[in-house]
Design goal:
This protein is of the alpha/beta class and about 300 residues long. The protein has one domain: Alpha-Beta Barrel (TIM Barrel), CATH 3.20.20. The protein is built from twelve helices and eight strands. The chain has an eight-stranded parallel β-barrel with strand order 1-2-3-4-5-6-7-8, surrounded by ten helices. α2 packs parallel to α4, α5 packs parallel to α6 and α9 packs parallel to α11. The longest helix is centred in the last third of the chain and has 23 residues. It is globular and about 60 Å long.
């Protein structure tokens, strides 16, 4: 069955690992995420953004995920990622999502607090949990005009959590959304993370955390794709972030690259194949491999309860 994320994140925080949050926009990716977690006996979060909901359908996403989870013995959460407003968060909660992220961090501090408190109050009535955000990541999450990081300030994070009573907090320490996170080496502000952790006691979340594995990028290029100079967060840095208190890590780009690369590879090598089940099934298999790799890096293998 689908479960609230709060319990799984508190357990991760206590035991020093991170739960994987994996974005999905279709059946194949959702199956890959859940089956990888089952094989590794790991808790997992299936996440959908506003754009994924618009593409896939809210009812379709919920029904598909619920049926795939069935009576599995591992905890699986269905999560709204970067919900831009109260109305979408409410729709997701009403249909059965077990957690939502309300991301109004583009608003003033006061407005962000007001909206987040409203979502928290509604979610509590449905036994669901709420993730909020303070600070901004540059990238594509909401067409930030300046494309600038606004890193999370530790004291503001503490004030925000006290004011909203949110269950987990996404913080900005230098990551970005999309494949182009850094021009070279990873540059995360671990001192800032350490300071936030000392003040904020609820679970902390790292967004924009895909690794953009270079071997995957090379394969994508080989089969006709193009991601020049794309770099992500190294596995070493992810483990380091977990050591400093991150207990939920979001992954989207790595799954997109894996899916796209395998589609291109299969179609190039099987030009007469028109069976969509074989075409998409091949891509699903590689996404599953990436999810399994991430679960092992996050340390959540064998942590199902």
């Amino acid at each position: 069955m689908l479960v609230n994320t709060k319990k799984m994140l508190l357990k991760a925080q206590e035991e020093g690992y991170a739960v994987g949050h994996f974005n999905s926009s279709n059946l194949e990716t959702t199956k890959a995420i859940i089956e990888a977690a089952v094989e590794l006996n790991s808790p997992v979060i299936v996440a959908t953004s506003k754009s994924a909901i618009e593409y896939y359908g809210l009812k379709e996403i919920y029904t598909t995920t619920r049926e795939l989870v069935g009576k599995l013995s591992i905890p699986v959460a269905l999560h709204l990622d970067h919900g831009p407003d109260y109305n979408l968060a409410k729709k997701c909660l009403n249909i059965g999502y077990t957690s939502v992220m309300i991301d109004t961090s583009k608003e003033t501090f006061k407005k962000n607090v007001q909206i987040t408190k409203k979502v928290v109050k509604y979610a509590r009535e449905l036994n669901a949990s709420v993730e909020a955000e303070i600070g901004r990541l540059k990238g594509i999450e909401d067409q930030i005009s300046s494309k600038e990081h606004v890193l999370t300030q530790p004291n503001e994070a503490l004030e925000f959590v006290k004011a909203t009573d949110c269950d987990s907090l996404a913080i900005a320490i230098g990551t970005s959304h999309g494949a182009y996170k850094f021009k070279g080496k990873t540059k995360l502000d671990f001192e800032r993370l350490k300071n936030i952790r000392e003040l904020v006691k609820i679970p902390l979340v790292l967004h924009g955390a895909s690794s953009v594995y270079q071997e995957e990028v090379k394969k994508l290029t080989k089969y006709g794709g193009s991601l020049k100079n794309a770099h992500g967060v190294s596995d070493y840095e992810l483990k380091r972030a977990i050591g400093y208190g991150i207990c939920k890590i979001n992954t989207d780009t790595d799954l997109r690259i894996a899916f796209d690369m395998e589609l291109r590879k299969f179609l190039k090598e099987n030009k007469s194949e028109i069976d969509v089940r074989k075409i998409l099934g091949n891509a699903y298999g590689h996404v599953k491999e990436i999810v399994e790799k991430k679960i092992k890096i996050f340390g959540s293998e064998g942590k199902a309860y």
